[in-house]
Amino acid sequence: MSIVIIEDDVRVSSFLERGLRSEGFLVQTCADGKDAVDLVLQVQPAVIILDRMLPNVDGIALCTLMRAKGVLAKILILSALNEVQDRVLGLNSGADDYLGKPFAFEELLARIQVLSKRDLSSHVDNIINFGELEYDKSSLQVRRAGKVIKLTAKELQVLEFLLSQPGKVFSRERILANVWGMNTDPLTNVVDVYVRRLRRKIDDDFNAKYIQTFRGIGYSLSADALPAS
């Protein structure tokens, strides 16, 4: 599991890094709030350990900013500011847990384990897998064979509808009604256009073609197209 430590005190950061690495975690550190968001977006860790008092960007402001940018990692604020109002402020900024300094490493480790288990159960509920295709409903991110596929909001809606019942053939009319909320197509072929765009993004670069066309009927995300195991 990947952890990012955002802490400007070298002694604390080094202690945490050594201790967490010895427990088998993948750890990266950052000492400046200004650089932290870029690191987090690049690494996409499961857990972030965040100090309150950082150079350039306060930890509370940084937590709020990361949530605004769609960071889904569990955030544990670690701070010497440990009054009730401090903890409430931290949790209200988007943090999942708050631990005061000084702290026992065993307690920190236990809290990380609880957060990671909570994240795992939530993550599993929000993941749809189909062959090499993975759709994370929480982050609205689609991957195929580990490669991120960038989709527009409407393309994502079409894909999610097809994923709702893999193997089922959906008529153009039903796709139109569920995705666009219309019974008739004023553009005459809007469903075909969006399915073609979706196919180009998730199928064209791969051997197995998941989106199947049933002429005169509609479209399906077909299990028959999966590669043989």
TrEMBL record:
Keyword Metal-binding among UniProt keywords: no
Domain OmpR/PhoB-type, chain residue ranges per copy: 125-223
The keyword Phosphoprotein belongs to this UniProt entry's keyword annotation: yes
Annotated InterPro entries: OmpR/PhoB-type_DNA-bd, Sig_transdc_resp-reg_receiver, WalR-like
Highest taxon of source: Bacteria
PROSITE patterns according to UniProt: OMPR_PHOB, RESPONSE_REGULATORY
The Response regulatory domain, residue ranges: 2-116
Signal peptide bounds: none
Keywords (A to Z) from UniProt: DNA-binding, Phosphoprotein, Transcription, Transcription regulation, Two-component regulatory system
Protein name according to UniProt: Response regulator transcription factor
Lineage: Bacteria, Pseudomonadati, Pseudomonadota, Gammaproteobacteria, Chromatiales
